[in-house]
Amino acid sequence: MSETPKLVLFQCQWCLFSPADQEWVDSQLPANIHLIKVPCTGRINPLYLLNAVQGGADGIMISGCLPEQCHFKTGNIGARRQLEEFSDYLSHIGYEKERIRFLWLDLQDRGIIQKELAAFEAQLEAFGPAHNLATRAVESAGGANA
Amino acid sequence: MVDAARQPLIEVKTFTEVEKVEGYVGNFVVTLREKSKYVRADRCNGCGACTKACPVEVPNDFELGLAPRKAAYIPMSQAVPLIYNIDMDACIHCYKCVEACGALEAIDFSMEDKLVEQEIGAIVVATGFSHFDPTPMTEYGYGRFPNVITAMEMERLNNSAGPTHGALIRPSDGKSPKHIAIINCVGSRDKRYNTSCSNFCCMYAIKNALLLKQMHPDAELSIYYIDIRTPSKGYEEFYDRARESGIRFIQGRPSEITEDPDTHQLFIASEDITLGKVIEREYDMVMLNQAAIPQPDQNHMSSVLNVAQSPGGWFMEYHPKLRPMDSPTDGIFFAGACQGPKDIPASVAQGSAAASRASRILHSDSWQIEPTVAVVWPDRCVSAKGQACGICARACPYGAIDYTKGLAAEVITAKCHGCGACVGECPHDSITQLHYTDAQVLAQIRTLLAIEPEKKILAFRCQWCSYGGADLAGTSHFEYSANERGLRVMCSARMDADLIYEAYRLGAGAILYSGCHPQDCHYITGQISGAKRAARLEKIFERMQMSPGRFRTEWISAAEGDKYARIINEMQATLDAIPEDVLKAEIERLRPEMSKRLTKMGEVPGVAQAMAQVDFIVDEMIGKEKGA
Amino acid sequence: MSGFTDPNTLSERVKAIPGGEMLMMCYSCGTCTSKCMIQTKLEGSYNPRRLIREAVFNMDDDAFADKTTWLCTACDLCYTACPQKIHISGVINAVKALAVESGKKTPYQVAKVDESTCVACGLCEKICPYEAISLVEKRVAFRGTITVASVDAGKCMACGLCTAACRSTSIRLAEDYNDAELIDSLLSWLETERVSS
C-alpha cells in the first residue's frame, strides 16, 4: 500500500523555540499533516485523540516541551500522564501504540520536528493505513457530516 | 622563561611540586617533589628522535586537545629546559624510544620521583589562574556543538605555531568561518558560577577580534557583552580602534545558542538592549570568553603554604590596597593572577613588587615581625601538669603552637601572627598576647564601664574589619549612639568569654561582638573560632534569661560604616526599650552568675595589679569630675 | 546618612513582596528577554528586563500598563538563566499583584465557568498550575445557592488545562475554540484527505 499516511500533529504553541521551525510548521506543512495548535499539551482533551482515531487518522504526533520547560509550570506533566495512559487504552482497543508518537522538545532543538515527522511518516507507511477503528469516517462518508 | 633559565643566579625547576613548607620568614624549609621525566636531563640533547619513534598518540594538553602528541614529548616548543619527557600514563612500554635514543642513553625507565629539601629565604607564589569550563552552561552548548569553542581554543587555532598552523577553521567541517561571534562573561559576573568580574576578558575579546580581523579582513565579527570595561591606559583607544575596524559590539547577554543539526550553523538569540528587541543571528563559529577561576589545586596550595583564600578562592593578600603583593604570612609573596584575575601589565607590576619585597628579606640579617605575639605561662599550662589539652594548638590557624602532652605548650614566635585565637580559647588562661594581655584589656573594660555602665554599649571590634567599619562610620559622619564604647582586639577569636563575663559583671548595658565576615578573616580561621564562641555565649546568656538583644554578634567589614552605625543605633533602641529599673535588676540578678565564671581571672599574672591600679585611677578621675 | 527610603515607592513595594526582593540586583543584561518564549512567539514588545527597569525607577503607570506584567506565566526559564539569580517571574508577579491592588485588570482572556452545568467536582481546582481556581458558594440562576468553581482573573494564565480536565465541559477560555468545532474541523480534514488520496 503506497498511500501517504494521514497524520494529525498536535503542537503546543511554545515548544518550537526556533522561529524558522515554527514558520515551517505554520505555513509549509505537507498536505497530509493536519496541525492543531494548542496553548499547552495539557489542553489536549483525550477526546481529540479518540476522534482522530475514529476519523481514520493513520498517526498522531504530539509535540510539547520537556517537563521542566513547560510554559505553564506543570501542564505537560499532566498531559504526559493523561495522554500516555489514553494511548495505552487505544492500543488495547486495536490502535497500535506506535501510531501515537510523543515528541518532547528541548529549547535548543532545531530542525528536529521536520526530521521526526518524516521518520514517523516512513514508519506509518510501513504500517499501512489504520482502518479498523475509522468508524466515524465511514459513517460520514456514507451520509451526513459529523 | 628562557632568559630566566640563562641567569646564573636563577635555578628553574620545572615539573616539580611543592610538597611541604615548614619554618618561617628567612628560614623556610621547602620539600620539593622533582617528578621523574624518565629522560636524563644531563644526557638529553633535545633531538626529538624518541618522539618520532613513539607509536602512542594522546591528546595534547597544551593544544587543548585540538592536536595529538606522543607519549614521548616536550610539553611545548618553548619548554625550559628543552628536555623530553615520557608520559607514563600513556606509555605502552614498547621501548622504541630507547632504541631511537641509541648511544645517548638518555632514556631511563628506572627513574623515580625525588624528594628534595631546600632552605629558602622567601617565597613568591605565581601559580596563575585557570579557565572556567563552560560545559555546565548547557545553554551555550559547549561540548555538544562542535563550532562552539572557548577563547583558549580560538587562541590555538589562530596561532601560527598551533595545530592548524594559523589557519582558522571550523571544527565541524574544516571550512573557514565568515561570521564569528564572541560571547563575553561566560561564567563570570554570574552568581551561578563565578560572581566576580574576570578583569581582562573585555580587552581579551577585543584583542582576539582585532587579530582575527587583521588575519581575515572579510570575516564579520560580533562581540556580545553586558558591559565593556576598558579602565586602563590606552584601553579605551583600543576599543575605539576595534569599532573603527568594523567589529560589531552587541550589548546583550545571549540566552541560548541553537545549532542546525545538519550544517552545524549556530544561531544566537539575544536581546539587543539598545534596540530593546530580541534578534536571532546566524554564525559559523562562536567563541566563549570564559571566566578566570583559581587553579584547581589552589585549595591544596593554600594549605601547603598556610595562606588564606579570599571569597572566590584566590589567595588572600595582606591588605587589598596597601600590601597587595604580600601574603599575611611573612616571607611569602604573591605575583600575578593567583591573587586575583589580572592582566599582563598588572601581573608584571605585581611580580616586580613581590621580587623586591622578597629581596628585602634576603638582604636582611634580622626581621621585624608583628609585636602582638602569643606567650605561654609554662607554670599555668595544664599540659605541663600532665593533663591532655592541646586546645591552643588546635585553635592556632598557623600551626605556630607546639603541643606535646606532659610539656607546656610552646609558641614558635616567628610563626605567630598575633591573632589571639589561642588566648581566647585557652580555658585555663595560660596564654597571653603581648599588647593585648588580659590585664590590659580588662583594664580598658573597667575604664570604659566606670560610669553608668548600664547605659553603655561595649563594642568588641576586630582590628581588620569591624574596627575599620567603625572608623569609616566616624570619618563618613554616620551618626550613631554616643553610648557606644569601642574596644579593639586583633581578631574576633581573641574576644575571650572571660572579657564578656567581666563586662557584664561590671554592669554593661549591651555588648557587641563583632569581626570580619567569614572568608574575609585576616587570620585564615580566626573568625570561625570567634563565631563559634559567640554562638556558645549566646546560648549561655539565653539560659541565664538575659533580655534578648543585650548580647549581639555581627560581622561587619571595613567598608560597612553604615552597617556599623545602624547596628549600634539598633542596639541603643533595644536598650532604650528595657525600662531602667528592669535592666538594673537584671544586671544585679546576673552579677553572681558572671562572677562564678570569673573565679580564675584574678589568678592570671598581672590582672590583680592592673585592676588595683585602674580602680585607683578611675576613682581619682571620678572624684576630680565630681569636685569640678 | 539615614538610609531611609520611601516604602511607598513601586520599587520598595515590589521588594517587600516575596519573590521581588532581588529587584535591584538586575544589571540589565537582557538574558531573560531573549530566553522568553512569549517574546519570540506571542508578543514582540514583551520585555521582562524593561519591566524590571520600570519597577526600579518607580514608573507605576508604565509598569502596570506593560504587557509583560500580564502575560508572564511564571515558566521560570529566565530564572534559571539569570546570571544574577533574580526570580524574575517573582518580580513580575509582585508588580501584577500591585497592579491588581490598584484596581487594574488583565487585558487578556481568562477561563470562564459555566455555572449552569458546573458540578463542583474540583478537578479544575486540582489541575490548575496557578491556583487560580477555587470552589465557592454562590447564588446561581435556576439552581439556587450551590458550590461552583470560580476563576481568579488575576491569577489565570489561560493555559486551558482546566478545559481539558473538565468532565462536564463547564469551563473554557473565553475566546477559545470549542471542542466541537475543533473535532469537526479535524474530521472534515480527514474526510477530504480520504477523498483526495
Would you kindly provide a written description of the structure presented here, covering whatever features stand out?
The complex is a heterotrimer of chains A (146), B (628) and C (197). Helices cover 41% and strands 17% of the residues of chain A. Chain A has 146 residues and is of the alpha/beta class. Chain A has one domain (7-140): Rossmann fold (3-Layer(aba) Sandwich), CATH 3.40.50. Chain B is globular and about 95 Å long. The N and C termini of chain B lie far apart (75 Å). By secondary structure, chain B is of the alpha/beta class. Chain B is built from 17 helices and 27 strands. Helix content of chain C is 43%, strand content 11%. Chain C folds into 2 domains: 10-101, no CATH class; 111-196, 2-Layer Sandwich (Alpha-Beta Plaits), CATH 3.30.70.20. In chain C, a hairpin with a 3-residue loop joins strand 2 and strand 3 (144-151). Chain C is globular. Chains in contact: A-B, A-C, B-C.
User: Main sheet of chain C: which strands, in order across?
Assistant: 1-4
Q: Assign an overall shape of chain B.
A: globular
Question: Low-confidence stretches of chain B at least 5 residues in length (pLDDT < 50)?
Answer: none
Major sheet details of chain C: 2 strands, antiparallel
Structural class of chain B: alpha/beta
Count of helical regions of chain B: 17
**Level of helix content of chain C?**
40-55%
Radius of gyration of chain B: 31 Å
Please state the average pLDDT score of chain C. 89
Instruction: Write down how many β-strands of chain C occur, each being a DSSP E stretch of 2 or more residues.
Output: 4
Q: Rounded to an integer, what's the Rg of chain C over CA atoms? A: 21 Å
Approximate shape of chain C: globular
The percentage of residues in β strands of chain B lies in 15-25%
Q: CA-to-CA gap between the ends of chain C?
A: 81 Å
Strands across the major sheet of chain B, in which order? 10-17-11-12-13
Largest sheet of chain B: 5 strands, parallel
Largest interface comes to: A-C, 43 and 35 residues
The oligomeric state of the chains shown is heterotrimer
Share of residues in strands of chain C: 5-15%
The string of secondary-structure elements of chain C, in order, is HHHHHHHHEHEEHEH
Q: How many domain regions of chain C?
A: 2
